[in-house]
Design a protein that fits this description.
This protein is an all-alpha fold. The chain has 2 domains: 166 residues, Orthogonal Bundle (Peroxidase, domain 1); 133 residues, Peroxidase, domain 2 (Orthogonal Bundle). Helices cover 44% and strands 2% of the residues. It contains 13 helices and 2 strands; from the N terminus they run αααααααβααβαααα. Strands 1-2 form a two-stranded antiparallel sheet. The termini are far apart. InterPro entries: Haem_peroxidase (IPR002016), Haem_peroxidase_sf (IPR010255), Peroxidase_pln (IPR000823), Peroxidases_heam-ligand_BS (IPR019793), Secretory_peroxidase (IPR033905).
Length: 325
């Protein structure tokens, strides 16, 4: 699954967007905000060094933004007394603060350098790509010119984001309705090679699985026991978490896929990838060949970055990422 040639990709994007004013380009801010790339790079570098979980947090934030209503930074908007926003939907309450903080820092710096010019949606898309690369993952082109959405409703999230407890058929369906193949879905799941999951997301798999066994038998027994110890106080401390990839938790690589056949998948959805005949072949391919995983992941992320985008008059440039103008 090869990356599209940049020139060909631009033609596809242009045809997709239609009008001239809505066209996305790689150098969208070249004249209006020439330090755009450098400011984001400086911001994410400082943040990732200070908090190594930033990369995983930002990738997850990006996915949770794009799948429900498109990549329009609507997940960044705060709720008001009149509206419950996406970020306060139950599935988004576990989104790590490092992701939000990264975008706020970049937006603040960009507003000082070039006011009312760069959208929060573009910042999130580029920060995600740069953090993937910084963590050792593949580079892929990000086309720019998105506008920020003017709507953020919690109700729009329901049924549009995968939950760890969902059966694999339902997870596949969520991605399919956004135009992603099973292979692309598995590749995107590889983002779990970095980042962490909260213990309360796996408590039923660890402590209350069945009468015959405390934990899900798909777990490696020693791994399950280790997770049980790490998560012992999850009821008292809801912030308790464990790395998604215990072998190389801060490095973007294919070890996540190598872990799954060994019973080292943290979430039920992780273990399900190796247990389902539709997804298992791709797990095995990506586990055996990191280059194939990187190509598939980069291509799928590039595609994800164009889902449901707002351009031209269909959106706005927010002054603050957490508030609609």
């Amino acid at each position: 699954m090869l990356l599209l040639n940049p020139a060909l990709f631009f033609i596809v994007v242009s045809l997709f967007l239609g009008t001239l004013e809505s066209r996305l380009t790689l150098d969208y801010y070249a004249k209006t905000c020439p330090k755009f790339s450098q400011i984001i790079q400086d911001t994410i570098t400082n943040k990732q060094i200070a908090s190594p979980t930033t990369a995983g947090a930002t990738i997850r934030l990006f996915l949770h933004d794009c799948l429900p209503n498109g990549c329009d930074a609507s997940v960044l908007v705060s709720s008001t007394s009149f509206n419950k926003a996406e970020r306060d939907n139950e599935i988004n309450l576990s989104l790590p603060g490092d992701g939000f903080d990264t975008i706020v820092r970049a937006k603040t710096a960009l507003e000082l350098a070039c006011p009312n010019t760069v959208s929060c949606a573009d910042i999130l898309a580029v920060a995600t790509r740069d953090l993937v690369t910084m963590a050792g993952g593949p580079y892929y082109p990000v086309y720019l010119g998105r506008r920020d959405g003017r709507v953020s409703r919690s109700s729009d999230v329901d049924g549009n984001l995968p939950k760890p407890t969902m059966p694999m058929s339902q997870i596949i369906e969520i991605f399919e309705k956004r135009g992603f193949s099973v292979e692309e879905m598995v590749a995107l799941s590889g983002a779990h090679t970095i980042g962490f999951s909260h213990c309360n997301q796996i408590s039923n798999d660890l402590y209350n699985y069945s009468k015959s066994s405390n934990y899900d038998p798909q777990y490696n027994p020693r791994f399950a026991q280790g997770l049980q110890k790490a998560c012992t106080d999850y009821e008292k401390n809801p912030t308790l978490s464990v790395f998604n990839d215990i072998m190389t938790p801060n490095k973007f690589d294919n070890v996540y896929f190598q872990n799954l056949p060994k019973g080292l998948g943290v979430l039920k959805s992780d273990r399900g990838l190796f247990g389902d005949p539709r997804t298992k072949p791709f797990v095995e391919t990506f586990a055996a060949d990191e280059t194939k995983f990187f190509k598939a992941f980069a291509s799928a992320m590039q595609k994800l970055s164009l889902v449901g985008i707002k351009t031209g008059r269909k959106g706005e440039i927010r002054r603050r990422c957490d508030q609609i103008n």
